[in-house]
Design goal:
By secondary structure, the protein is mainly alpha-helical. It contains 22 helices and no strands. It has one domain (29-234, 261-462). The longest helix has 34 residues, at 312-345. Keywords: Membrane, Transmembrane, Transmembrane helix. The chain crosses the membrane at residues 35-53, 65-90, 110-138, 200-221, 266-283, 298-318, 330-353, 359-380, 443-463. It holds the Pfam family SCFA_trans.
């Protein structure tokens, strides 16, 4: 059996026998390619904006769409760099050996789930890009050794990754903790930053994050398909990366090493960048205390990846391979930027946010912020871009109602965790690396959506 990498496959699933198999069955028949889905969402949002938005006229819609499409490019490059630099770390030989050693401990589907969930969750908590890559590569290593349903295993990895917006790379938490950040709406409104101790390290965030991982591990063990419905992984015919990793300067025509090849294989270039990067971080953190934002996270992962890959050419080849997995995101980000532009420019997003805010009290505002975020995230699946749309409405409400600002802001971020289990945008790179159809994966993650929806809502309401 060949890997399931094409839009069509010889495998025809049997008629569903239960809820989970039914979800997989439906997703395979209903859900289009993620890029096609983003176009469909653009049409839906445009129609809604024209019908009900406060300024839903054609000129405003077109101008907002254009502004959003190209206004997101800088942020899109930041996000893609996080993923690419995370990929370069995960592909380093020492990390690969570690993944193979870990995979050797997974001898049954249950053990596979018990391994994948904590490992991927920790990686995702540290950095969302690293979590995506580790999840895909660890799933492949396990599937080579254990007879498991590959879609189930990748879905488990993606479900474990879902907690990333509650971790150290949460763009909402990081931006509110970063002085002068363009997305630090709290500082703009109050003059104060929100430290990470009040967001990702607060009990109302940390407890449900751990609980989602534990509960979903148990549920996924129970969800593994019966043996006659298992679609296993096969890397037969797996294309090598010879084209991307070949060194055209390795030898000259007479067989001797060239100046170019010696320069590429020298660690001097790596050491130069390490000195510059580490020097900057040391200077910045000495002067302004320890701080993490999006650019700093990218720099740290760049430096770690360079150190692990050792030579400039090895790192360049790793980034080339990463670029193959991020290509679909390059295509989708501008489309979703256009959706975000329409929602913001026509006032559609403000209508959704205000509808929930108007019925909120100081105690319930974080929950209403969370619920409105669930809706907006399905249309704008980027935490930073989403925060730019919803933040200007929920934060003034939190301040005027004297509600918890950190809880209200993290309600938006936690809803990102949940909605990503139905919105396939972030699943694209993990399924591309793993080599499987996204539709089968989303059938399983729909269960994660339902379970985590309840857990995070309960935590916002009850945990103090």
């Amino acid at each position: 059996m060949k890997r399931d990498t094409s839009p069509t496959t010889a495998f025809q699933p049997a008629a569903p026998r239960g809820i989970v198999e039914g979800l997989v069955y439906v997703f395979e028949r209903v859900m289009p390619d993620p890029f096609v889905l983003s176009i469909c969402l653009t049409f839906v949002v445009a129609v809604l904006a024209l019908l009900i938005a406060p300024t839903g006229n054609v000129p405003t819609l077109l101008d907002s769409w254009y502004t959003g499409t190209f206004g997101i490019l800088a942020f899109a490059l930041q996000m893609i760099l996080i993923l690419a630099t995370g990929y370069a770390i995960a592909e380093a030989p020492i990390v690969q050996r570690g993944l193979r050693a870990l995979a050797a401990h997974a001898q049954t589907p249950a053990r596979a789930a018990l391994l994948v969930f904590p490992v991927v969750a920790i990686a995702a908590w540290l950095n969302w890009g690293l979590g995506l890559i580790v999840g895909a590569l660890l799933s492949r290593e396990i599937a080579r050794r254990v007879h498991v349903d590959f879609a189930w295993l990748v879905a488990g990895s993606y479900s474990a990754w879902s907690i990333c917006n509650s971790g150290l790379s949460s763009s909402i938490a990081l931006s509110q903790a970063s002085h002068g950040n363009a997305l630090n709406l709290v500082e703009k409104a109050t003059g104060h930053v929100v430290p990470l101790a009040e967001t990702i390290f607060a009990p109302f965030v940390f407890i449900p994050t751990v609980l989602v991982v534990v509960v979903m591990t148990a549920i996924f063990i129970k969800m593994h398909p019966k043996s006659d419905n298992v679609v296993a992984f096969s890397d037969a015919g797996d294309a090598s990366d010879d084209a991307s990793s070949a060194d055209p300067h390795a030898r000259s025509s007479d067989g001797t090493a060239t100046f170019a090849s010696r320069l590429e294989q020298s660690m001097l270039g790596t050491l130069l960048l390490l000195v510059l990067g580490v020097g900057y971080l040391a200077m910045e953190w000495r002067e302004n205390k320890f701080d993490l934002d999006i650019n700093t996270t990218i720099l740290i992962f760049l430096l770690i990846g360079l150190a692990l890959q050792r030579t400039p050419i090895a790192y360049a080849n790793a980034i080339r391979r990463a670029a193959r997995q991020t290509g679909s995101m390059l295509l989708q980000y501008p489309v979703y930027g256009g959706i975000m532009g329409i929602m913001k420019g026509t006032g559609l997003a403000s209508m959704i946010a205000k509808a929930f805010v108007t019925i909120a009290t100081p105690a319930t505002l974080p929950v209403w912020s969370y619920l409105s975020s669930l809706i907006i995230t399905l249309l704008v699946p980027s935490a930073g871009g989403h925060w730019a749309v919803q933040g200007p409405f929920v934060l003034p409400a939190a301040i005027s109602l004297h509600a918890s600002v950190p809880r209200t802001a993290m309600g938006v971020a936690m809803a990102e965790n949940v909605s990503n289990m139905l919105q396939p945008f972030w699943a694209v790179p993990i399924v591309a690396i793993a080599g499987i159809r996204i539709q089968r994966v989303m059938g399983y993650t729909a269960v994660t959506f339902a379970v985590s929806l309840v857990i995070y809502a309960a935590a916002l309401w009850l945990v103090h």
